[in-house]
Protein: PH regulation protein F
Organism: Candidatus Ruania gallistercoris
Amino acid sequence: MSPVVIAVCAALLIAAAVITLFRVERGPSMLDRIVALDVLVSALIGSLALVSLWFGRTDLVLVLTVLALVGFVGSVTLARFAAAEPEAESRIITPAEAAERDARARLEDGEL
């Protein structure tokens, strides 16, 4: 691949990482910071792929895969904790409580 193309890609990845670091620091909400961290992991994956391409290192593919999985699991975990959920909906209900809810719903609908 052309060194010019690799240099342009590297410059774009560095710019994306710098802008993303600004968003991580200044982000007005927790969700903005989570998305920025996900973009930062993506920029890191792209940078590592670029290094792998430049030096012809195919052994870095495993590292890229692991980094992608860690980024995905981290994003999903953080999004789960950032989601606003009422206390009553986040708890697991027992079968008796489920039957009681169903019976109450049937009574409201007029079914017997």
Residues 30-55 form the longest helix (26 residues). Residues 3-85 form one domain. Residues 20 and 109 are 51 Å apart (CA to CA). The helical segments are 3-26, 30-55, 60-82, 87-90, 95-109.
